[in-house]
Here is the input.
Amino acid sequence: MRAGFTLVELLVVVAIVGLLSSYTVIYSNTTRRNTELYVEKARVGQFILKAKSFTLSTKNRTSLGRPCGYGVEMQDAVAPDRPALAMFSYSVHDPSSYECKQDAITLLPLSRFDRQEVERFELTKGVRFLANSSQRGELTRVFFLAPDPQVFLWIDGAAPLPGVYAGNIYLETEDGRANTSIRVASGGEVSF
Here is the structure.
């Protein structure tokens, strides 16, 4: 008749429990990181759609000085430790003109607009714009121009061109282990 467990049996049980608990800790950290990343992705999408909504509210522009539209700009070079998105309102600073467009599809040069920061959105600690992205189609600025709204996208730092249909904002965790993207199309649609 046995009185208890042998030392080998106890060591095997302790090893199995340690292995299972380490997998649980690793899995929960990965899940937490991915959850933070996807929550941030939704918040960035909402911020862009907020600029579009503000632009739609200027559709019936009757007074001089009301914005022609709103834009969102990715600002990671300004403060790399606190990447952010900034929303700006744009108005024509020529008091004799209500025109915000050069023609049906061309935006006036940005130097002809007065730009005022409306709101700032800092990314949550632990999430940043994808560092050293070699992927094409990286979006640096989105501009919604009333009344349609017409959408202008700055892709890879270049000025907006007709025929550019979509750009992406890439996000990653600080440790670089998880990343995701947000796609903004030329119609102003934001997709995840």
Q: What stands out?
A: Residues 138 and 168 are 5 Å apart (CA to CA).
